[in-house]
Amino acid sequence: MDTKNLIPLLAMPLLLLAVEIGALLISLPVQASGVVAFEDPSSIANPVIFIAILLVFTALLLVLIKYDLKKVITAVIGISIFLTFVYIFVALVYASMGATDLATVVVLVLSVLATVLLYKYPEWYVIDGLGILIGAGVASIFGVSLEVVPVLILLVLLAVYDAISVYKTKHMITLAEGVIDQKTPILFVIPKRRNYSFIKEGIGKLADGGERAAFIIGMGDMIMPAILVVSANVFVKGWKLAGMINLPAIGAIIGSLGGLAVLLHFVMSGKPQAGLPPLCGGTILGFLVGWGLSMMV
User: Fold this and answer.
1) Which helix (H) or strand (E) holds 178?
2) CA-CA-CA-CA torsion for 54, 60, 62, 64, nearest 10 degrees?
3) How much is the pLDDT for 2?
4) Are 128 and 189 in contact (CB under 8 A)?
5) Which among 173, 89, 155, 78 has a CA at the least distance from the CA of 120?
6) Which of 76, 228, 80, 221 is nearest to 162 (CA)?
7) Can you tell me the mean pLDDT for 175-199?
8) Which helix (H) or strand (E) holds 14?
9) Structural domain spans, the chain
10) Would you call 288 exposed, middle or buried from its count of C-beta atoms within 10 A (0-12, 13-18, 19+)?
11) CA–CA gap between residue 292 and residue 142 (Å, rounded)
């Protein structure tokens, strides 16, 4: 593998680590502010509800892509991103300022500014920087809202769904291509060359030599492993390293990096790959090893 491909590939584990560590840090203000996705974190119905919402949203986007309703796609995803920022900043701001009128104004201003920045200047480093915040924030909210068993069920279901949607029905490829064509900022973009510009080129254009100018990885591929990391750290009681992170969470992080390594091996084939099977599988395996070790401490 040449340096041109090696350096961007090495950036992906760093992005995953940034999301996971960020999620652990954000989980503290999320818990303090009381922001949750589900009222009962132990309910087995929660993963089913999650999958159902995902299917509805995916179906909506596929219909919009089919009828080439680009402005509607942009609006739907833009509103979703704005609302995501609202939840994240509510957790961060309310935890420090309290649920005051001033805090609400700060939340709205920050959410608007972040969303506008993503859409008015969607350069790859802006997308990746705010993407880490989005990924960490979403993972922390779901991680503190779901106990470990519901999360394990969710990751298994998502891995199966991702494999079917990429290799069997292939509708996830259609969805990804539609999102990429719109230059929608819900992907992590890792350029292969210094002068690459997502604004000017997107992903569709090819660099010299017939290779794409950047690697991409879905935001969901980074978020899902981080959900288990946070859930393990919040709900599994026991010894914590420096009083901050326990062995099951550490194991999940290491496992997710192993799963990412497997994914990147197959990505080099040049064909679209389902990210969640190796990522979720590695994260679950790592969690189980960490959990087993924690029983012996």
Assistant:
1) helix 171-181
2) -150
3) 59
4) yes
5) 78
6) 221
7) 81
8) helix 3-33
9) 3-296
10) middle
11) 24
